[in-house]
Amino acid sequence: MAKAYERIADDLRQRIRAGELSPGDRLPSETALSEEYDKSLPTLRQALGLLQAEGLIEKQHGRGNFVRQSRTPVFRTNVRHQWEKDRAREPEPQRKKTGATEHDTGLEMDDLVFFASYEQVEADQELAEIFGVPVGTALVERTYRTRYQVESHPFNLVHSYLVRDMVAANPDLLDADNEPWPGGTQNQLFTIGIELARIEERVSARPPTAEESEELGLPPGTALIVLGKTSYDITDRVVEHSFVRLPGDRTEMTFVTELGRW
Predict the structure, then answer these.
(1) Are residues 39 and 92 in the same domain?
(2) Most buried among 94, 97, 212, 235, using CB within 10 Å?
(3) What is the pLDDT of residue 131?
(4) Residues contacting 256, CB < 8 A, separation 6+
(5) In terms of domains, do 60 and 153 share one?
(6) What is the pLDDT of residues 104-115, one digit of tens each?
C-alpha cells in the first residue's frame, strides 16, 4: 500500500504531466500543499523530495518549489565517430555547417554557446599509461563546454588530451582561439597526417561531486555518466584521450554493433 507521501507525489506528478502545472510554474507553498492534502509538513516535504529526485521539480532557495524546465536531450551513438571521420576531409565551408553537438541534439550552430581553453600539462600516471609515454610528458589539455543558449548548464564536461610534440607540427592545434574547430578533433589530426582507425569508449556511472552537480545542474540523486574515449591511429598509436562527464538525466547512449553473417 502506498505511503502518504507517495500518494501526494503521485498526485502532483499527474498534475505536472497533465499540464495543470507547466514547466517554470511555482508550486503552491509547502504550507498550502500541506493543508490541501491534510498531511504534516514533514510528509509533504518527503513527497517534494521524491519529485526533486525524479527531476520533475526544483527547489529555488528563498523562492519555493518550481516545475523543472525540460532540458534538451542528448542522443549519443557510436555511429557518430564514422560520421566525424567522413566529414574530416570535407572542404571547410561544409565542415563549418555543423558539429558533433548539433549531431547529437538536433540543434543548429546558432543555438549553441561554446567555450574552449587549452593548457599545457604534464602526463600523470594514468595518462602516461594511456598514451604509452613517460610520466611528465608534455600534453595539451583541452577543456570544452557547450550549452544551449536558452539553458544555463552545459551538455557535458570534456577534458581532451593530445601529446604536445605529436601535434606541434601545426601550431594552430595549440591555440584555443581556433575553436570551435570545423570538423573537430578528427580534422585537427588530419591536418598533421593522422588518420584514426578505431575509438574505444569505456562507460561507467557514479554519484556526481557537489561541483559537478552544480555545473551540470543535476537534480538530487541523478547519476553522472563517465566516458573514457581513446582514439587510435592506423599504426595502433594512441593519439587522443578524452574524459567526458555526462548528466544522467538528459543523456541517452546507444551502441550499435553490426554482426557478420555466418
Answers:
(1) no
(2) 212
(3) 98
(4) 77, 78, 79
(5) no
(6) 999 999 999 999
122 strand-pairing partners = 138
Q: Does one domain contain both 131 and 89?
A: yes
Alpha-carbon distance 116 to 134, whole Å?
Answer: 27
- CB 244, CB 74: distance < 8 Å: no
Paired with 75 in beta bridges are 252
**What is the reported pTM?**
0.83
59 shares its domain with 159: no
Alpha carbon distances (Å) from 232 to 22, 25, 79, 154, 164 = 47, 49, 16, 27, 16
Cβ-proximal residues to 135 (8 Å cutoff; 6+ apart), any chain: 122, 123, 124, 125, 128
Residue, of 130 and 18, whose pLDDT is higher: 130
Distance CA 153, CA 150 (A): 9
Q: Which three cell numbers stand for residue 46?
A: 518527503
In the block, residue with C-alpha cell 498526485 = 11
Kindly state whether residue 125 falls inside one of the protein's structural domains.
yes
Average pLDDT over residues 119-144: 98
Q: Which of 42, 67, 92 is the last residue of a domain?
A: 67
- Helix and strand numbers (H, E) in the chain are 10, 10
Residue ranges with strand state E in 68-195: 74-77, 112-122, 138-148, 157-163
Angle 52-53-57 (CA atoms, 0-180°, nearest 5)? 20
Q: Contacts for 126-133 with beta carbons within 8 Å, 24 or more apart? A: 127/161, 127/241, 130/230, 130/238, 130/241, 131/161, 131/163, 131/238, 131/241, 132/237, 132/238, 133/163
| Phi, psi of 204, deg, nearest 5 | -140, 175
Of 49-53, 170-174, 222-226, the least confident: 49-53
CATH code (residue 139): 3.40.1410.10
C-alpha cell of residue 84: 566525424
